[in-house]
Amino acid sequence: MSYTEAKAKYALLGVNPDEAIAKLRTVPVSLHCWQGDDVRGFDTDPTKPLTGGIQTTGNYPGRAGTPQELMADMDKVISLVPGQVKLNLHASYAIFDEENGGWVDRDKLEPKHFKKWVDFCKERGLGCDFNPTFFSHPKCDPQTLSSSNEGTRRFWVEHGKACVRISQYLAEELGQPCVMNIWAGDGFKDIPADRIGPRLRYKKSFDEILSQSFDPDKVYPCAESKVFGIGVESYTVGSAEWCLRYAASRKDCICLLDNGHYHPTELVSDKISAILSYDQKMALHITRGVRWDSDHVVLFDDETREICKEVVRCGLDRVFLALDFFDASINRVSAWVTGFRNLQKALLYALLEPHQLLKKLQDEGNWTRLMVIQEELKTMPFGEIWDEYCRVCNKPKDGQWFSEVEEYEAQVLSRRGLSK
Ligand code: RNT
Ligand code: ZN
What we know:
Blueprint (H helix, E strand, L loop, with lengths): L2 H9 L5 H8 L3 E5 L34 H14 L3 E7 L24 H10 L3 E4 L18 H25 L3 E5 L4 E2 L7 H15 L8 E6 L10 E2 L3 H9 L5 E5 L9 H9 L5 E5 L1 E3 L2 E4 L5 H13 L4 E5 L8 H20 L3 H9 L3 H11 L4 H11 L9 H10 L9
Helix pairs in contact: 2-10, 3-10, 5-6, 8-9, 9-10
Bound molecules: L-rhamnitol and zinc ion.
């Protein structure tokens, strides 16, 4: 079937695929730098284990070990995905060199440590999101912003404030808003004796970080919650309720929902409209939870599609979209490309739904016809529209990109030697 024929089928439902394609090309999606190096960053000893309740498993060869390698890998990814890419950096990816004075600790980070990333984005026309890094560092005791040690807590508050200044710099340099997401894995392995103490200290720390001045049209601070982490099974300081209430208590902080951070039968697709009933904007980390892991590669699966439908229905301009997964057991470039393309597919799929018609059937109580149409939509010729989207974006179709990753693995990744 040709694109023209597929388009005619969608037209019968009142859907215009050209419009869906044009719309999707304007939607930024943040590509997380941390898939390329198993969340190691460049500011701490890469042989030390990750902390803060996150973990990567696998030792597939070819992990990026330097900024140059990570940038090269991201360039490869960008060349293989349709849509508007935005970069997503963690503070631990600061680039230290002789010109900028060399290594500093996280409380002393400055915009200059991200100048090379700004140059990278400018050359490629990308915006950039940012994340303070409250994990995998000797000053995690193991708590950070909720620590009962005032010196530790202050160190991490200073890190957060430095990151607000860096986020403002990124937004100003790149002319796109910077989403600054605060996630800390603070919590306890076993049953605590004091639950409110850490949460009150966490609140004080967030307040202190956000006392750093910034332009609210340029920097969007977020609070990301989590249900539990590895080694942090009994209590998480920044729980769902804590983060929702914190964001609700301030005009300058929004909620970030990571769909790997809830109990397995809870669905983020159902939470989006609840939050947007109150807030103008929110942010998402799109991932795939599998049992205890919250960070498998994003697939074109039911929940990813359902999340995207909700984002489209509520307004694509109200939700900041970012990917968040890290798989060290497969080719990392392929993992990135697969996840990014699958999110693009799910967004396009959602943009091709006859939302007005379906909503009307719901409002009329016509659940019978609604079910029939929703089921028939699943066998519409979506593949043709997806191919056309890849074509207009000048990016490879399905079936045409993986050989490029294999070639890159043979020429570049495999020459990096043993997994570092
Ligand atoms: C961890 C959170 C967090 C991190 C990244 C690296 O469970 O999802 O967003 O994955 O910040
Ligand atoms: Zn996340």
